[in-house]
Amino acid sequence: MRNVCVVGVRTSWRTVADGEFFCPDCGGDRNYLRRTGRRRLTVLGIPVLARGDAGPILECSACQGHFGLDALDHPTTVRFSAMLRDAVHTLTLALLAAGGTASRAVRDTAVTAVRAAGSADCTEDHLLTLLAALAADTGRMTGTYQAATGGHCGHRGLDPCGTALAIELHEALEPLAPHLAPAGRESLLLQGARIALADGPCTPAEREVLSTAGAALTLRPEDIGRLLAAAARSPRYRG
Questions:
Q1: Nearest to 102 by CA among 128, 139, 141, 123
Q2: Which residue of 19, 33, 78, 191 is surrounded by the most CB atoms within 10 Å?
Q3: Does this model's pTM top 0.85?
Q4: Are the beta carbons of 239 and 198 closer than 8 angstroms?
Q5: What is the number of H-type helices and E-type strands within the chain?
Q6: Co-chaperone DjlA N-terminal domain: from which residue to which, for each copy (predicted)?
Q7: pLDDT tens digits, residue range 7-27?
Q8: Over the stretch 75-90, which tens digit does the pLDDT of each residue have?
């Protein structure tokens, strides 16, 4: 004899929005439907009484799994790649501004770092142009850029304690930090250290930039010091 459900609760869903998210079950970028619902008591399958609202939830269009809205806090793969690219780009520019671009080793290391982060078309001229624009537009750097006579800036005078610089680094790195494992956050800081060390020991200005970046990546001060000390001793991080 077949069992018959006499009394139950049925949810009627309504789609209110859609988009793309990182599906926790699929493990990749998927389309989603944002849905709200109404619960109703059913008797013999017939809705008879309202039992309140349901959701809102996100429904994966691929696996049909239901997730809370906090699933949107996790960036999509595309968004994460863009965040990482912007973080490396910002840190690189800050270090070049603090340490100068007179050294060929520094310029080459900076270009390599930015390209590896996803900006495959980055060139030395591109970075130097951005540095000159920062100097002209914000006044955060002092000294003279010789862009018209080779593009090399030997000045090492970015104010490392400047509020504007600290804000830029925090804006680029803080949103990324929760989505990186500790090893990933350390690796990002060490990429910066590699640029700073390409022409010799870190200057105080470069160390200040790296310390600001480490704080934005939620690394403890003692861990920042340990990583920078290890980088200074290791040929791997020196140009």
A1: 128
A2: 191
A3: no
A4: yes
A5: 7, 4
A6: 137-227
A7: 566 667 788 899 999 999 999
A8: 999 999 999 999 999 9
